[in-house]
Amino acid sequence: MSEEQLYANRRRSTGTRGFSWILALVFVLLGISFFVPTNYYVSRPGSAIELGPMIQVEGGKKDDTGSFMLTTVRMGEANLLWYWYAKMAQDVELLPKELVVGKGEDSEDFIRREQAVMDNSQKIAEAVAFRLAGFEVKIEKQGVWVMGTLEGFPAHKALQIGDVITYVDEVRTSEAKDLLTALSTKKAGDQVEITYTRDGQEAKTMLTLEPLPESKSVGIGVRPDNKQEIIIPKEVTIASQGIGGPSAGLMMTLEIYDQLNTETDLTKGYKIAGTGTISLDGKVGRIGGINQKVIAADKAGAEIFFAPQDTPDTSSNYEEALATAKRIGTSMKVVPIKTVEEAITYLNGQKPKST
């Protein structure tokens, strides 16, 4: 072998070893990035899930030719790898941790709150659907729902997300405004007896009132919501499969209403996805991650997508959804919705899909 050939072989061998070292370093850095936390959560497109198999209404029909689907996003704490991926990917979003979990909260608190909100959304969906179908619905106020606690305040150690405050010093607190009224005459340093329920069990605790941040009033440091019992004339079973949050409210309402409406097929044979919170008056509210939900619906083959028209300008959920639909080139029709009645009217006006 000539001297030139020996030199060329040696150079190739050196280059190969150098490339191997670089490759090994890349893999090491990637491995390390899995364990490096950031102060962000990452959300990305989730899935579109048919509601028919999830929801069962007593005596309801399930012979639709189409389907209603809820849409989800996937969310979790972002390690360094996910952080840099989200910086480069168009449909992956970084959310500052304090926007997802409150100060002093952790992922378990977030999951507990999301599940509590989902439970409430289910009950409201039942009430709205039954009322629209002509049934009588009774609503009984149960107390003040704890949706979060403030770090450094007495409630942070004593109460949990999902607890329901029923009395303050033996004065009934049927809703959030009752809690505010009960504390309005108190001053910092006063103690109050809080009666609450957790997992169906009643308990009591003594808490000392403290000045609330950016407020002239005092409190125990909770983020309150109203907890109510909704009484409907038929049993509804919803297997939400661990899905949390309030954004499935609209689509659950439509599925329940459709099962109650035994004479017609509201889907008309279409695959219908969408998103939006639901309130007791039937209004549809804004949600997060609308662009990611449009992508999830498109991948699932949805033909219609209901999006909240929460504002009259370009910042509305509908306009965001429409922009994403145009960008990804989907044939799915994005429909603006302000109320459940609008969604029902739209579907009633569609011709049955030809097969």
TrEMBL record:
Q: Which domain of life is it from?
A: Bacteria
Keyword list (alphabetical) reads:
Hydrolase, Membrane, Protease, Serine protease, Transmembrane, Transmembrane helix
Domain Lon proteolytic stretches = 243-350
**InterPro entries attached to this UniProt entry:** Lon_proteolytic, Lon_Prtase, PDZ, PDZ_sf, Ribosomal_Su5_D2-typ_SF, Ribsml_uS5_D2-typ_fold_subgr
Catalytic residues in the record:
247, 293
Q: Which reaction does it catalyse?
A: Hydrolysis of proteins in presence of ATP
Biological processes annotated in GO: protein catabolic process; proteolysis
Asked whether the UniProt record includes Hydrolase among its keywords, one would answer yes
So what EC number does this one have? 3.4.21.53
Which residues are listed as membrane-spanning? 21-42
GO MF terms held by the record? ATP binding; ATP-dependent peptidase activity; serine-type endopeptidase activity
- Is Transmembrane helix among this UniProt entry's keywords? yes
PDZ domain residues are 134-200
Name the protein family.
Belongs to the peptidase S16 family.
Question: Could you tell me what this protein is called?
Answer: endopeptidase La
Per the record, the gene is ylbL
